[in-house]
């Protein structure tokens, strides 16, 4: 369930799962924004978007440095791979912030009082398999951890195609696959359908742009496979461009996420 319309005290209200878990719909739960728990505040949502933006920017920087190195061979691969690893850390941090938020969002309840939201035990991860938002944030967080391994192992660049595929390519594929699953679940949650077109809604644009980024990361991961023999020179270049484009989508989505938090606070 991602959308519900109901009447409360004579008012027709609309409950949306994504806005609910992010604390963006104060009017549908009877909660003054000033009484919201810290994970449902404008600052928390804005900070999450800002951290995502930093990670995406570092990935974009790493891609640009890689392209420069592929053309002129002027940069040390260890330095470039370190930039990617530094970028994976903000991704994991922001990914966990979203997972923590989803773990403590609570179920649908018309116009719940503040005490019903802020009281009780705080969950670090939670267990809400019926919630596409929680499943999305869980898949995303685990995916970011896979990228931590992928980018860290790339710093030391093991020799041999088997070792590279085992410690670099496989974690990258796992992370990209989990990102793709996460992106589509978030798309379902915001669009309330398996396929939707809601260009007038900021939330839809956020998840749509991120889903496009996840697809680009997936294609980049496939192209990153290291074969036993030689491969065409265009393959790593195209893979790197796809990775850059995916990071750009994540950067745009993060900026829109920051804007969404501000817009919600001034309603």
UniProtKB/TrEMBL annotation:
Sequence intervals crossing the membrane: 46-68, 80-99, 166-190, 202-227, 233-257
Keywords for this protein: Membrane, Transmembrane, Transmembrane helix
Protein name: YrhK domain-containing protein
Organism expressing this protein natively: Microbaculum marinum
Lineage, uppermost ranks: Bacteria, Pseudomonadati, Pseudomonadota, Alphaproteobacteria, Hyphomicrobiales
């Amino acid at each position: 369930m991602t959308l519900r319309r109901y009447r409360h005290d004579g008012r027709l209200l609309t409950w949306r799962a994504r806005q609910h878990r992010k604390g963006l719909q104060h009017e549908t739960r009877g909660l003054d924004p000033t009484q919201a728990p810290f994970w449902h505040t404008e600052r928390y949502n804005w900070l999450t978007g800002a951290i995502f933006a930093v990670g995406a920017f570092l990935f974009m920087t790493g891609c640009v440095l890689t392209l420069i190195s592929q053309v002129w061979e002027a940069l040390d691969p260890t330095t470039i791979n370190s930039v990617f690893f530094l970028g994976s850390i903000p991704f994991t941090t922001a990914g966990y912030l979203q997972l923590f938020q989803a773990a403590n969002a609570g179920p649908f309840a018309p116009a719940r009082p503040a005490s019903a939201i802020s009281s009780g035990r705080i969950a670090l991860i939670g267990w809400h398999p019926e919630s596409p938002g929680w499943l999305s944030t869980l898949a995303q967080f685990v995916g970011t951890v896979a990228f931590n391994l992928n980018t860290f192992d790339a710093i030391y660049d093991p020799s041999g195609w088997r070792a590279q595929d085992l410690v670099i390519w496989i974690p990258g594929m796992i992370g990209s696959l989990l990102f793709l699953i996460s992106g589509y679940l978030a798309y379902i949650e915001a669009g309330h359908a398996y396929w939707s077109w809601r260009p007038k809604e900021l939330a839809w644009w956020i998840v749509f742009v991120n889903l496009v980024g996840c697809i680009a990361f997936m294609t980049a991961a496939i192209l990153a496979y290291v074969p036993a023999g030689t491969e065409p020179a265009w393959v790593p270049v195209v893979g790197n461009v796809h990775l850059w484009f995916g990071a750009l989508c994540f950067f745009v989505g993060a900026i829109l996420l920051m804007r969404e938090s501000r817009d919600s606070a001034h309603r």
